[in-house]
Write the structure tokens for this entry.
Amino acid sequence: QVQLVESGGGLVQPGGSLRLSCAASGIIFSTNNMAWYRQAPGKQRELVALITSGGSANYADSVKGRFTISRDNAKNTAYLQMNSLKPEDTAVYYCNAGTVLPGSYWGKGTLVTVSS
């Protein structure tokens, strides 16, 4: 059974930082692309960042220079370091895994709220 479990969300002030984690089980982690999506209230889910099985990273224009995606294959965990957070980054953040985009597997999400 595949499980993706996100953690690290919460309330942060504008300009602050958070690091999200996605712990995976039930898949061969190293062969899967890992991605973070987000969905804000009333909006469609959007791709935030992707890291391929080979380690190449891509980002949405809205987060370039502020967010960093990484992976630790030894720990079966993907990360999203979020710096200089803005109120418009408020959303539920979802971990995604698979060999295509979007991948077949989703976590349940973690809420990030950026507010003063």
Notes: The chain has a mean pLDDT of 96. The radius of gyration is 13 Å. The longest strand covers residues 18-25. DSSP finds no helices and eleven strands in the chain.
